[in-house]
Amino acid sequence: MDKLMAFIKRVSEATDAMLERVLPPEERYPASIHALMRYSSFAGGKRVRPCLVAAAYEACGGADGDERVFKAAAAIEMLHTFSLIHDDLPCMDDDDFRRGKPTAHKAFGEALAVLGGDALCILAFETLASVGRIDIISEIASALGTSGMLGGQVVDIESEGLHVGRETVEYIHMNKTAALIRASIRVGALLADAPADALERLSSYGNNVGLAFQVVDDILDEEGTTETLGKDAGSDAEKGKATYPAVVGMDESKKYAHELIEKAWADIAFLGDKGAILKDLAEYIRVRIS
Amino acid sequence: MDKLMAFIKRVSEATDAMLERVLPPEERYPASIHALMRYSSFAGGKRVRPCLVAAAYEACGGADGDERVFKAAAAIEMLHTFSLIHDDLPCMDDDDFRRGKPTAHKAFGEALAVLGGDALCILAFETLASVGRIDIISEIASALGTSGMLGGQVVDIESEGLHVGRETVEYIHMNKTAALIRASIRVGALLADAPADALERLSSYGNNVGLAFQVVDDILDEEGTTETLGKDAGSDAEKGKATYPAVVGMDESKKYAHELIEKAWADIAFLGDKGAILKDLAEYIRVRIS
User: Fold this and answer.
1) Nearest CA among B132, B149, B128, B5 for reference residue B76
2) Which of A204, A275, B224, B286 could make a disulfide contact with B229, Cβ separation 3.0–4.6 Å?
3) Would you give the distance in Å from CA B21 to the centre of its chain?
């Protein structure tokens, strides 16, 4: 995994440098919202989505030193952060901590958290526009909308305490989490001008990895400690959230996560050695629960 | 004003038809958010921004029957609606009524109002992508961000009860309201491939009309009745909002609104007869207080 760790470090640094460049400086008027945007953007996110953008781009033979990759990666990370800020609001999941730090509304107040989330979303589209590819803007907008991430968030909120079935949990995870993960991979492939059949296989890889990612998150929420998670352990169960462990049990959830990663591997077999980083990234998600 | 009324009717109908087409049907899962998006999009908005898009497009010699104009107009209207939904939230302006109907969070709950606003914003960018012009996406994103609409909203919220000066009120109005109005006009001109000097004059027209629009709104909030406004009259004063009447008085505010409209007229004198609708639209804003 040494090569993977070097890759993650390189991509995270390049993404952070791009975020540093596109986010307004904190001293710019009105300062409070710019402080919030930076606070949440540099709150210790693992930059999973930027890594998937860059890994897909490089696996599909994209040229070195293409700034568009990190513009797209930074935009996707801002969109992810926007969704977390709104998700944490009192009227939504009402979370006080994320990654061990007070959530945006705890640190800056609710009004600014709503507007700061909005501002990250808008700045992400402004940044995507600077990439200059309409297809990438369409791809991401459609992954975020009500037939993607936001649809998943709605059903997640509405399912609280309802004892929904596996089908509903699958819908929530596939949309709330997997849609943007799949889009990240597709965006990397699109920037490398990958052919249609490669795009299709990478989409399937994205669905499997995205779903696995959320199943693993559910497992960790139940098995992890508040210290390792950076947020309250067991908070999903407390809120009556629709999670995999809640509907199919812990053993079956772990088995399912393993199966999904193996399916993801099969999806990218066609890449051969060029798919090594994508393979390791999938494994990296699994080892968190190994 | 007969020609103007016919124009407004035509553009409103075309915009509504486009919104009808791009908004997901209410029965699509998850239904609640789609119901909210339609509820707020068809809540009696006057379609001022779509009229400005179409008027600028036609004044700059754009060809008849160009669907892109109404896609852009519908997207801008969705972005305006997104900003109103979030603005009305309890943590922001805490308004229960808008245009005589319960606000989104009153009708659907706070969580759905946050997500529904987000969804309209995302769908707007998806719709703009289908127009196929990167420059228009940049234009609108930059008008909405923290050096535009969202910056104005932040200062608006933070100025409540603070007795700020005219400069701050001017900043709020120029950004919160005028930025998207100016962008609407510029988008129409860009779609008609207007030359740079026309764009510049139309931008100035947009600033003047946009500022006048908000000054008139402030005046009406103080002088109108709850019945004519569709929301609580005098609510700005009650909240200690930074408004023109509050900082410069009512007489000076009316005088300023008239001056701004006259400046707007001067800006578009170069269009001659082709600018008739833009001229009448500016007058239409003024007559509300005449």
Assistant:
1) B128
2) B224
3) 21
pLDDT tens-digit series, residues B188-240: 999 999 999 999 999 999 999 999 999 999 999 888 766 666 777 778 888 88
Name residues 22-41 of chain B within 8 A of A (Cβ): 24, 28-30, 32-34, 37
> Residue holding tokens 């990439």?
A131
Residues composing chain B: 290
Question: What's the pTM?
Answer: 0.97
Nearest to A10 by CA among A73, A103, A61: A73
Taking alpha carbons only, the member of A38, A86, A74, A56 closest to residue A202 is A56
Percentage of residues of chain A with pLDDT beyond 70: 97
Distance CA A11, CA A51 (A): 6
By the CB < 8 Å criterion, does A143 face chain B?
A: no
The architecture that CATH gives domain A2-287 is: Orthogonal Bundle (1.10)
Instruction: Report the interhelical angle of A48-59 vs A2-22 (nearest 10°).
Output: 110
Q: Which of A29, A114, A142 sits opposite B114 (nearest CB)?
A: A114
DSSP 8-state symbol, A97? E
B274 closest CA partner among B56, B6, B4, B8: B56
Q: How far is B250 from chain A (nearest CA, A)?
A: 28
A111:B29 CB<8 A: no
Residues 68-107 of chain A with CB under 8 A from chain B are 82, 86, 89, 91-92
Other Cβ atoms within 10 Å of B227 Cβ, number: 8
Q: Do A30 and B109 touch (CB under 8 A)?
A: no
User: In this complex, do B153 and A115 lie within 8 Å of one another by their Cβ atoms?
Assistant: yes
Could you tell me how far CA A35 lies from the centroid of its own chain?
22
CA-to-CA dists, residue A93 to A46, A85, A97, A144, A157, angstroms? 21, 10, 11, 19, 8
Can you list the alpha helix ranges (DSSP code H) found in chain A? Answer: 2-22, 31-41, 48-59, 67-87, 104-108, 110-131, 134-144, 149-159, 166-173, 179-191, 196-223, 226-229, 235-239, 244-248, 250-267, 276-287
Task: Say whether A118 and B150 touch across the interface (CB within 8 A).
Answer: yes
The complex's ipTM works out to 0.96
Nearest-by-Cβ selection for B114 from A24, A91, A151: A91
CA B241 – CA B245 distance, rounded (Å): 10
CA distance B151 to chain A (A): 6
Task: Please report residues of A whose CB lies closer than 8 A to that of B109.
Answer: 91
**Calpha distance B186→B218 (Å, rounded):** 25
CA distances from B126 to A76, A84, B21, B129, B208 (A): 15, 21, 13, 5, 30
Rounded alpha-carbon distances, angstroms, from residue A94 to A85, A178, B226, B236: 10, 23, 35, 30
